[in-house]
Design goal:
Elements: H1 2-21, E1 27-31, E2 38-43
Antiparallel strand pairs: 1-2
Length: about 60
């Protein structure tokens, strides 16, 4: 349960940092709990095209 609360708080930080650093800086948060290894929040993803749910690495 605590992990979900932390992720929720970090998602807010991702949005904040994306606005602070602007559209030339991509900010991504990965959920590494329980083997998920996926993007759970991303801002300014126009740089890489990654989206929520994408894996940590592409095969």
């Amino acid at each position: 349960m605590e992990d979900k609360i932390l992720l929720k708080n970090f998602k807010n930080i991702v949005e904040f940092l994306g606005e602070v650093y602007g559209s030339t800086c991509e900010i991504a948060l990965y959920d590494l709990t329980e083997g998920k290894n996926e993007v759970c929040a991303i801002c300014n993803n126009n740089l890489s095209g990654r989206k929520v749910g994408d894996p940590l690495t592409k095969t």
